[in-house]
Amino acid sequence: MRESQASQFMTKTNRLVVLRHGESTFNIENKFCGWHDAPLSEFGIQEALTVAIPAILQSQLEFDVVYTSVLSRSRQTAELILSKTNCAYVPIKEDWRLCERHYGNLTGHNKRDIANQHGEDQVQEWRRGYDGIPPPIEENNRYYYTIWSNPIYDVIPPGQFPFSESLHMCVDRVKPVWTEVKQEVLKGSRVLMCVHGTVARALVQHIEGISNEGIEKVNIPNCVPRVYEFDLNTGGLVGAAINLGDPEYIRRKTAQVAAIGD
């Protein structure tokens, strides 16, 4: 009887995992990638295998559904994780609204070269400022037609295809997806969201209620699982987010993401 009574007052919770995909071929070249469908680099594959997967296995995390964008680096990371955790049967839901923010005409350019041309303050405003919008992509950008004609974007409703986006615009684009995912989490589904750097930041703002100024300072390293626990009765967070993995590795990689690079 006492055990039965006690169980009525135990907090029932469920976990959500947010994870940035592994390093892409554009990441390794320090280029703005955005909506260009760059695949994982060899190092990015190894990040999934040696950083994300061991952390997930050690924490005994299991999933009922995985959300990705329509971009291959997002899906590829998710598939690696599922295949190596004996969860290949878990469905993957792709959603264009979870694509990385569109970096406009910066797409394909080296970040250091752009900083040398426009100044570091301007580049950091484009990269980290909440309302900083890069110049819209132009037809003379070598990736303009590659992006525009990519069939993965055929699902986008008319008038919603961006030519450049700020962090704020990405936050707004992600919000309805997050609303859907949270409903799944609160119904008990164990969800992994394998997304992109800016999308992960957008989710962090929605989940944690961080201010517009505060989210500008948040940086998400590749392949480090970020775990949230939700109270299924109240829908609120239980404690703070937990980043799984070696703290020194996470610190070093977070600083690397924040920097403009060489």
TrEMBL record:
GO MF term set: bisphosphoglycerate mutase activity; phosphatase activity; phosphoglycerate mutase activity
Enzyme class: isomerase
Pfam families recorded: His_Phos_1
EC number: 5.4.2.11, 5.4.2.4
Lineage per the UniProt record: Eukaryota, Metazoa, Ecdysozoa, Arthropoda, Hexapoda
Coiled coil: none
Record keywords, A-Z: Glycolysis, Isomerase
Organism encoding this protein: Drosophila kikkawai
GO BP: any one term: glycolytic process
Annotated site, Transition state stabilizer, chain positions: H196
InterPro entries in UniProt: His_Pase_superF_clade-1 (IPR013078), His_PPase_superfam (IPR029033), PG/BPGM_mutase_AS (IPR001345), Phosphogly_mut1 (IPR005952)
Reaction catalysis annotation: (2R)-3-phospho-glyceroyl phosphate = (2R)-2,3-bisphosphoglycerate + H(+); (2R)-2-phosphoglycerate = (2R)-3-phosphoglycerate
Protein name per its UniProtKB record: Phosphoglycerate mutase
Similarity remark: Belongs to the phosphoglycerate mutase family. BPG-dependent PGAM subfamily.
Active site: H21 (tele-phosphohistidine intermediate), E100 (proton donor/acceptor)
NCBIfam families (alphabetical): pgm_1
UniProt-annotated binding residues for substrate: 20-27, 73, 100-103, 111, 127-128
